[in-house]
Write a structure and sequence with these properties.
5 helices; single chain; alpha/beta; about 200 residues; about 30% helix; 7-stranded mixed sheet; Maf protein
Amino acid sequence: MSARPKKIVMASGNPGKLREMAALLRHLGIEVVAQSEFGVEDADETGTSFAENSLLKATHASAATGLPAIADDSGLAVDALGGAPGVYSARYSDPGATDEKNNRKLLAALAGMAMPDRGAAFHCVATFVHPDGSPPLVAAGEWRGSILLAPSGDGGFGYDPLFLDPESGQSSATLTAEEKNARSHRGQALRQLIDLIAERYP
């Protein structure tokens, strides 16, 4: 079995995700480096589930760099929209979508719906792949809440300004990074994944 890795490539160019992951992995003494620092472009997300896309991205980054890689695939599933935008969350409004355009489209899709009918959940699947060919490690998280009538807060990224966290009564975009990591779908999945990494590489 390989020794615990000292460096892991993050299969994402999203600076928000990189900050969250670096903070969670720091206590294991593992450095997290964005795949963009190696000139690696994003993998084609051709999967039909968060798990498939997460594995695709991690495998792509690991193969391109020769390093262990972590990827996550996450998205927002809105009850009233049959689980949409789901795996298409990042490109919900169009292939070149921005957070603002995606949020506008979501608000339009839920126009006229009262808060009790605006239930939603963030989902995340996180995957660790090692180039030594050992089986991938996979973990998942879910954060239930609801969609606000208008954006609130300017922190976070993606749908954070529209997602009401029931525990705090605040939008995800108004939580501190520590508060968000403690309850978010990504925080849940990554803490589970980190435990699995620590078990494999004691």
